[in-house]
Amino acid sequence: MKQLKATRRVLIGAGAAVAVGAAAFGASAFFKDRKPSEFNARLIVGSDTDNSIAVQWEGNGSWYLELRKSGSRDAKRFTPQPDSYTVKGRTYHLQTVRIAGLHPSTTYEYQITGPNDERSGWTAFRTSDLENCRALIFPDSQSNDRYKTWEGVYNGALGRTPDIDFTCNMGDLVDCGAWLDHWDYWFSAVKGGISRIPVAVVMGNHDTYDMDSKTRVAEPVMFLHSFPVPDNGSENFRRWYYTFDSGPVHFIVLNTEWQEADLLRPGLLSEMKTWFRNVASKTDKPWSVVLMHRDVLYYKIKGRKRANETFDEVGKELMPLFDEAGVDLVLTAHLHTYRRRDHIKAFARSEDGPLYNSICLSAFICCMTGVAGNIRYPDFWIDHPLDVKIAPQPETDNYLLLDATGQSLSLKTLLPNGNEIDSVTLTKNT
Question: Which domains does the chain have, with CATH numbers?
Answer without folding.
Answer: 13-26+129-427 (3.60.21.10), 38-126 (2.60.40.380)
